[in-house]
Write a structure and sequence with these properties.
7-stranded mixed β-sheet; 3-stranded mixed β-sheet; globular
Length: about 190
């Protein structure tokens, strides 16, 4: 089975985030909202057909099991699974309304997003008998900062200095209204 088919079977509809392919069958876009902050959003364009998005915040915090003293109950806002130029990616995405000094919290949320996707991976391996599910996917971590649409007056700032393949060094994108997925990866396609 394909990644998106397994995820569609596994993830409750309420936790799925729709990617819009109505204008183009090959690439679509998704509008991500900061939970409980409807004026804070960013649109990611150029997602290829077969991409799949989930709201990681829909996964209940395991506060009755974990103490939460090291941030282990936190989660990022979204995960997008996509194949671009024959490479498979999992984008763990956190949105922040402002650019307040929340670096430590962002890292914890991105780590929690990673843990959620690893849990999904193991569920698919064990219950769908998909022994290599998500094994070939590369992780990319993205923090969208200052996504408040009412205050957005500056041009998008995006500077790729590292690979952003660890929660501790996410790609930070400020003031974005929309961004093309190729800019996030630093490649051109399509």
């Amino acid at each position: 089975m394909k990644t998106c088919e397994i995820l569609s079977d596994l993830i409750n509809d309420d936790a799925q985030e729709e990617i819009d392919f109505t204008n183009n069958k090959e690439t679509g876009f998704i509008k991500l909202l900061e939970p409980d902050q409807p004026e804070s959003s960013v649109t990611i364009k150029g997602l290829p057909a077969g991409s799949f998005a989930i709201k990681l915040d829909a996964f209940p915090a395991p506060q009755q099991f974990f103490k939460g003293s090291n941030g282990e109950c936190k989660r990022a806002d979204y995960a997008i699974f996509s194949t671009i130029r024959d490479k498979k990616y999992i984008f763990i995405i956190e949105l922040k309304k402002s650019n307040a000094n929340k670096e430590h919290h962002i890292v914890q949320q991105l780590r929690g997003g990673y843990c959620c996707t690893k849990y999904l991976q193991e569920i698919a391996k064990q219950f769908w008998q998909e022994s290599d599910f998500l094994d070939s996917h590369e992780y990319r971590y993205i923090a969208f900062l200052d996504v408040n649409t009412r205050l957005r007056k500056r041009p998008t700032k995006l500077k790729i200095e590292t690979l952003h393949d660890k929660p501790e060094c996410p790609l930070k994108i400020k003031y974005a209204k929309d961004v093309h997925i190729s800019k996030v990866l630093g490649v051109q396609y399509g």
